[in-house]
Amino acid sequence: MAEELIRLRADLTDEAPPELGALLDVHLMLARDDALCESALHWIQERRYNAEWALSAQLEVLARQFDDMEDEYLRERKVDLEQVVGRMLSTLAGQESPGMAAMGQGARDFAGADPLVLVAADISPADMLGFRDGVFKGFITDIGGKTSHTAIVARSMDIPAVVGTREASRLIRQDDCVIIDGDAGAVIVNPSPIVLEEYRFRQRQAELERARLSRLRHTRAVTLDGQSVEMLANIELPQDAQGAVEAGAEGVGLFRSEFLFMNRGGQLPAEEEQFEAYKAVVMGMQGRPVTIRTVDVGADKPLERSLGGEGRHDHVLNPALGMRAIRWSLSEPGMFRQQLRAILRASAHGPVRLLVPMVTHLWEIKQVHECLARVRSQLADGQVAIGHVELGIMIEVPAAALILPSLLPWVDFISIGTNDLIQYTLAIDRADESVAHLYDPWHPAVLGLLEQVIRQTRAAGKSVCVCGEMAGDTLFTETLLAMGLRSFSMHPAQIATVKQRILRADTARLASTLGSLLTSEQLAAASAQELH
Ligand code: PEP
Ligand code: MG
C-alpha cells in the first residue's frame, strides 16, 4: 500500500495542487507509523486477531487519542488516519486501488471528482437542514422510518435517501461507490459496471420525465370530470417559498415553523425574527395563501436543552406521546403568544392561515382561541395592522378524528396529518425502522378515519386538506380523490407527478369504488389494486 502511495505521489502532474502531494506524504507517514503497524501486529500476536480486525481495533485506540487532542487541527487528522486504515483494509481485501478517490474529501475537493453521499447511523432533522446547500447528493441512515422528519426533509431537498437500513453505516466504507435507489428503498454498494450503467440509464430517464412533467407547472389540476383540485406545498424554511412557486404551488399548505426554532444553541427566535421569516414566505408566495403551523417541537424534533426550562424535554419516556406540538405551546403561553403575534403581523402582507398541530381535546382549541383573542387585542391596542387570519387544526390523533363534529364549529379549516394519524392509530413509532413494516396507510382503520374526516368536514362546509406524505405519493391520489379530497399539500418536487395523476382521474368513477375499499381488509387490498 505504501508503494501505491509512492506511485501516486510520483504520478502527480504539475497542475496538481501542492496540498495534494503533502496529503499523500502525510498518509504515507501514517501508513508506516509504528503506533499503527506495530500495535496492530501486537493484537495479531497476542490476541490472534486477523489483520483486518487488528487494524480496526488499533484505529479505535488511536481515534480516541485524536479525539482527546486539544489542538483542533491535530484532532481533525483522525480523518486521515481513518482513510489510511480504510485503504489498508481495501488492499487486504484484494480490492483494486481506489486511486485518488481514496484520499477522501480533501482530494475530492482538489480533483473536483465524485459526488458525495452521507452514510450515518442517524441524522437528526435539524442536521439535515444544514445540508440543504447541496453538499451531499444522497443520504443513507441506519435509523428512521419513511415518514420520520429526517426522511421528510431529505424528500423536500429532492435528493435520494434510504433510511432505516440498520447496518449501512457499519457495512459501507469510505470511498465505496454506492447507488441510492430511494424509490425502491435499496442501496447497492460497489455495483458491477452493468448495474451502474442500468442506473445511469434510469437516472437519465428520470431527468427526462421530470423535464416533461415540469411543463405541467402552470396547468390547473382538474380531473377528467371537471373537479378542481388545489395543489399546495409543504415547506420547512422561508427560502423554500421560491421553489414552491416555481413548482406551480397554489399556496403553502404547511409551513413547518419549528425548523426556525432548531440549530440555535438554545436561543428561541424572537418575535421580530419570526415575523421577518413569516413575512418572507408570505411575500415570496406573491398573494397565494400561506398556512403557517405553530411550532411542532418534541418527538423526533426536540429543542435544545435550555429552551423551555432546564432539561425539561430531555430523557422523556416516550417522546411521540409526550410534550409535543400544541401541548408544548400551551405549556409555554408566553412563547406561544409571541409566535401568534408574529404570524398575525405577517398577515398584513398577504393571506395567512394559522394551523395548530396535534390537537386532541376540545379545550386545547378553546385555549388557542383565548390566546389569539388576547394577542389580537394587544395588536389592536398598538394599532398594528393585521389581515384576516383563518384558524385550522391538524387532525393527527385518532381521538380528534373521532370527536371532529365537536371541533368543527371552532375552526375554519382542517388539515389531515396522515404521518401522525397513521402513527397514533396503528401504534407505530414513525421514526422506528424496526416497526416500519407495520406502518400501513391502507389499514382499514386509517382509511376509515380519513374518509370520515374528509366527509364530515366537507358536510360542514369547511375546507379540508391532506398535508401528510400520503398527499404527495401517487399510490394514494385516486383513493384520496375518491374520498372527496380536493386539496393536497406536498413537497414542491412532488406536485407535477401528483397533478398528472389528477388530470387522468375521474372522481365519479373512483367514488363508486370507495365503498368496497372501506369495508374489509381483503377488499381494501383488492380495491387498491383495482384503483391503480
Ligand atoms: C403529519 O403528521 O402528517 C404532518 C404533516 O406533520 P409532521 O410530518 O410535521 O408531523
Ligand atoms: Mg404531524
Automatic annotation (TrEMBL):
InterPro entries: PEP-util_enz_mobile_dom (IPR008279), PEP-utilizing_PTS_enzyme (IPR050499), PEP_util_AS (IPR018274), PEP_util_C (IPR000121), PEP_util_CS (IPR023151), Phosphohistidine_dom_sf (IPR036637), PTS_EI (IPR024692), PTS_EI-like (IPR006318). GO terms for molecular function: kinase activity; metal ion binding; phosphoenolpyruvate-protein phosphotransferase activity. General (non sugar-specific) component of the phosphoenolpyruvate-dependent sugar phosphotransferase system (sugar PTS). This major carbohydrate active-transport system catalyzes the phosphorylation of incoming sugar substrates concomitantly with their translocation across the cell membrane. Enzyme I transfers the phosphoryl group from phosphoenolpyruvate (PEP) to the phosphoryl carrier protein (HPr). Its cofactor is Mg(2+). Belongs to the PEP-utilizing enzyme family. Residues 2-77 form the Phosphotransferase system enzyme I N-terminal domain. One of its GO terms (cellular component) is cytoplasm. It is found in: Cytoplasm. Pfam families: PEP-utilisers_N, PEP-utilizers, PEP-utilizers_C. Residues 211-505 form the PEP-utilising enzyme C-terminal domain. GO terms for biological process: phosphoenolpyruvate-dependent sugar phosphotransferase system. This is Phosphoenolpyruvate-protein phosphotransferase. Mg(2+) binds at E396, D420. PANTHER family: PHOSPHOENOLPYRUVATE-PROTEIN PHOSPHOTRANSFERASE (PTHR46244:SF3). Residues 115-185 form the PEP-utilising enzyme mobile domain. It comes from the Bacteria. Phosphoenolpyruvate binds at R256, R293, N419, D420, R430. Its EC number is 2.7.3.9. Keywords: Cytoplasm, Kinase, Magnesium, Metal-binding, Phosphotransferase system, Sugar transport, Transferase, Transport. The active site is at H149 (tele-phosphohistidine intermediate), C467 (proton donor). It catalyses: L-histidyl-[protein] + phosphoenolpyruvate = N(pros)-phospho-L-histidyl-[protein] + pyruvate.
